Amino acid sequence: MKIKKILVANRGEIALRIMRTAKKLGIKTVAVFSDVDRNAPHVLFADEAISLGGITSAESYLRIDKILEAALHSNCDAIHPGYGFLSENPEFVRQISNNNIVFIGPTESSMIKMGSKIEAKKTATESGVPLVPGTHIAINSIQEALEIANKTSYPLLIKASAGGGGKGMRLVHKETDLEEQLKMASSEAMSAFGDGSVFIEKYITNPKHIEIQVFCDQFQNGVFLFERECSVQRRHQKIVEEAPSSCLTKEIRNKMGNDAVKLALACGYVGAGTIEFLVDEELNYYFLEMNTRLQVEHPVTEMITGLDLVELQIKIAEGEQIPFKQSDLTINGHAIEIRICAEDSYNNFLPSIGKITKYEIAEGDGIRIDDSYKINMEIPVQYDPLLGKLIVHANTRAEAIQRMELALSETKIEGVDTTIPFCEYVMRNHSFRKGQYNTFFINQYYDDFINEDSLQNSIEAGAYVVLQAYLDELNTLRPVDIRNNNWKLNRIER
User: Fold this and answer.
1) Which 8-state DSSP code applies to residue 206?
2) Band of the pLDDT at 472, cuts 50, 70, 90?
3) What predicted TM-score, i.e. pTM, was given to this entire model?
4) DSSP string covering 398-446
5) Which of 99, 296, 446, 457 has the most C-beta neighbours closer than 10 Å?
6) Quick one: pLDDT at residue 323?
7) Number of C-alpha atoms within 13 angstroms, CB side, residue 116?
8) Set 63, 228, 293, 397: catalytic member
9) Strands 343-344 and 334-341, sheet pairing
10) 189 pLDDT band (50/70/90 cuts)?
11) Is the pLDDT of residue 481 over 70?
């Protein structure tokens, strides 16, 4: 079937990004919005817009009933969830299907199978995909946890089965802390996801976070669109992503990619998905989890493949086969993405709110911006602080870093604090430039970033003091002693 109208069940930059591709394909779009987003760019861009009411996510973008009502009222034949909100909610998928609306994403069953980390690990085991040593089922007692911990050894990670973003996650260094941290992780998981199930896995030291973009169609065809490296993170949230990775060999890339496709096909997956791996210092890789949706960082994959991933999602949802084979795909150059968030880089990335008083984004060859803000807009406290994503592409990694440095220097946002200063630091950091960095990058270098800025401020302050003293010296009036000099006074006689 050909999709004629899509409701985008999201907001911000991803809603705009989906709508642009839909319009390119001649598909009508419907935006939904909360009271906070009434005049947001994604609302103004869509062909139609329907109010969900409310201020918070729980009152608007998480209301399955309201979104379905909007889709039916506007005669939409498809819904695209974007990422976040309801994008990985199998109940949402079920209700959409029950109303004969196409969900642009995976099936309910595959989402259930891969949405739970425990179920995903079971599938990985059955598919022969490497796993981090630990448990593949929920921990039911402290005694069971102690037995597993003795096998994996410390340090270890306690992780929530449902959800992500670091919630329900605890790092345990010694046995005496295990029981308390287990209870805290389970309680936090229950509060955040309504599921207190947790599992234990060996803590990999100095890992890289590398993920494989996969696509599967309804005919059991699957391909991988290479990898992205997402190791620069704060609070388990990515801030800098690049493609391809700076460390993988062609052989390891192909092995990881084939394992990722095998895992996706094993659960009957359809559409875009991401298989996340931890990679250790010897380039051994271990399955981490699957994100059953489009990723925030998908633009870097688009830049190195020349593909429009949203267009591919839509065509697969319409029942088409993947229009290329794995052998047709090649990596073209290098791409880097930075997330511009309304956060204070100098204060542990705390959220920053206020009105944007200046908004100038770099433009030029090899520079792309996916955003949803403009000057004089307020940053709402109710939602994610992501303002937009700045993406660059170049022939080589070194050239991409250089291009990103230039793009960041030409991007001016005022009125709120942003992550731009820290991203500028990342681009000039020697370990990042060499590709020798891991998920502890911010822990290792944040103090260096702060001290570097303090040093620069001291240098600028010192220069200002010296300049001011020099100007004061120039402006000081002094009497001139003309005694004992060779000057001659010439008088004009009249």
Assistant:
1) S
2) low
3) 0.85
4) HHHHHHHHHHHHT-EEESS--SHHHHHHHHH-HHHHHT---TTHHHHHH
5) 296
6) 97
7) 20
8) 293
9) unpaired
10) confident
11) no
